[in-house]
Amino acid sequence: MSQWSSGYNTEIPYTYGYYRELSPNWLDYVATVQSIRAPSDNARYLELGCGFGFGLALMAALSPEHEFLGVDINPVHIAHGRKLVADAGLTNIRFEEADFIDLARDWPADWGTFNYVSAHGLFTWLSEPVRNAMIQTMKHSAAPGALVYLSYNTLPGCNTTLPLQHLLRLWQKFDRTQSYKAISDGISRMGALISANSKMTEALPEIRELLEHIAKQNRSYLAHEYLHDSWHPVWFDQLINEVSAAKLSYVSSARVGDFHREITLSQQQKEILEQYDDQIIREVMTDVLVNENFRQDVFARGKAPLWPGEQKATLLNTAFVQISRPEGNELEFKLAGSSVLGKAEVYQPLLEAFETGSKKVRELISVPGTKPRTLGDTIRAMNIMLHAGVIVLHRPSANAAPAKTLNRVIAESVAQGSPYNYLAAPQLGNVVKVSDKELIMFREFLREPAAKDPEKLARKLVARLADLGKPLAPKEPPVPQGQQSISPYAVKLADKFLQITIEKWKAWEVF
Fold first, then answer.
1. Which domain holds residue 104?
2. Do 122 and 59 fall into the same domain?
3. Which helix (H) or strand (E) holds 190?
4. C-alpha–C-alpha distance, residues 347 and 366, integer Å
5. Helices (H), 5-65
6. pLDDT tens-digit readout, 252-311
7. Which GO terms describe its biological process (predicted)?
8. Are residues 381 and 462 in the same domain?
């Protein structure tokens, strides 16, 4: 550990992720559903612990009317973020290297305050002094009425993870190994403990499934998740007490599916929950019933009320658009760790309505069904489909140009070996996940948009993968240099890209 990191693992950089729950549009929707007034237009957004800044750059490209600031302690992250936005010509975003301890002590006056503040994941990775400083930084930075997003490891679900994390970090310190090796060695050692029927692993039967899960995950993510000196999942009520120092009040979960976690509970579990009227205790008890291990929550620095008439008007004018269908067209959605089977008479008419394009809630209420649909019924269905990724909030960007430019930079970077796998879709007002192969083909398409030959595109894809030492398909070896033959699978990928993907991206104004 570096002395300047305060026990936080900075040996290897973090991942290049994007998390939809952090976006201003998403936070606005959560606030509206919970009768809280969302920030006005031309707002300012701060991300604490922004990592490489890739996700923040995507948000800035989609919302050129907002101003964005990313703060991180790791200079590698800040350097990357600054280069990315400079290459893309984004002028509404900047990155600053800073320590929460310093910011808590002396908040830069010229930074001002922000209407949105977010911190994804790192809260329960920090030592107590740094965690307290982070809360003080939130107090300095959040304007009255600001929405604050905070995600963190929580109890009781992390009880299984606690011994795993402790041993992984202990073994790393004892062996003095680098993070990647420490993760691999630690997974093997935990596997040996399970095979040896250790009393600890027998007492924690879920640890076997957890170990199988993390063995498939990104090693950079795992190092940042587990290899810290301070790793302390908290109960929800403990978190509420801690952030009260920043005058933050709980709004709701940021996961809109969590608004309806009760539908995953048995009748007996519902009866237990009904014993508690207090919102905080109900959240704790729900966490107990579903064994929650990770929360994504929204707070407000002053819960400015949205009056009932305003809320109804805002919700009725909220638009959604479908971007995928449930797998196999099955109306099965993941919710609070469980699978929920949607009623065909509720969801099928809504899915059919989305086939003709974007729909506002006022239109969806009128979609024929077996019984009249209320505003509450409609919002509930939208929340569950939104949570599942079947639909997205439809708020097109006022100016598509910044997103299109950033997308070109992303495609060029991936062709050079960068690990990005998201693009901005300004017509949707959202970010979409894509593959490295799609981005390589996208780069070739942008260079030669008139070319429509799938075999030619497949050859370029395979050649680029060979240069990068990457495989064409999962679990295959890397494509060898100088390979002349083109597999039918590569041609199939290229044909799908030219016939389907590029047309969809064009409609979404990706380019």
1. 20-155+233-255+292-301
2. yes
3. helix 179-195
4. 13
5. 24-33, 54-62
6. 999 999 999 888 899 999 999 999 999 999 999 999 999 999 999 999 999 999 999 999
7. methylation
8. no
